[in-house]
Design goal:
elongated, about 5% helix, about 150 residues, mainly beta, 5-stranded mixed beta sheet
């Protein structure tokens, strides 16, 4: 295979997302998967409702990069726990709310364990339609690097 040009290779079929791909990042060759690319460019939709708690440390959220939040049901509060900052060094996650949010529907984006978000153990409140927040972990805490309200 090393003696073939890329244009001479056969096309892959029936990908399941776990296949390794080769990337060059900062002049270093690294590997990733189809799922890594999909999770980076395709949003994960999470429907939230009053009284609910979702832990983004759960395996189903391990690689998400963009989360679209949709409110369902009556007014109230729900909690969205960030994953551990130390387990997610250099990870960035974007959150956006849909048009179903208002001042009576609140998502509390909360650092987990002893982590902080912008130096505080307090939550960030999402309570407006089309609100957005972008957070990043340096391996010891989460930072808010962009907000849209």
């Amino acid at each position: 295979m090393a003696d073939k040009k890329i244009t001479q290779l056969e096309s892959a079929t029936a990908l399941d997302g776990t296949e390794n791909l080769v990337f060059v990042q900062s002049s270093e060759t690294k590997k990733g998967t189809v799922n890594d690319i999909i999770n980076y460019i395709v949003s994960t939709h999470i429907t939230v409702s009053s009284g609910q708690t979702i832990n983004l440390s759960d395996s189903q959220y391990a690689n998400i990069k963009l989360v679209k939040l949709t409110w369902s049901g009556a007014s109230g509060n729900m909690t969205l726990n960030l994953p551990s900052a130390s387990d997610n060094t250099n990870r960035a996650i974007r959150f956006i709310s849909n048009g179903g949010f208002n001042t009576n529907t609140r998502v509390y984006l909360t650092p987990s364990g002893g982590d902080t978000l912008d130096g505080s153990t307090n939550f960030y409140e999402i309570n407006k339609e089309y609100e957005g927040i972008y957070v990043w972990s340096d391996g010891s805490e989460w930072f808010i690097i962009q907000k849209k309200a």
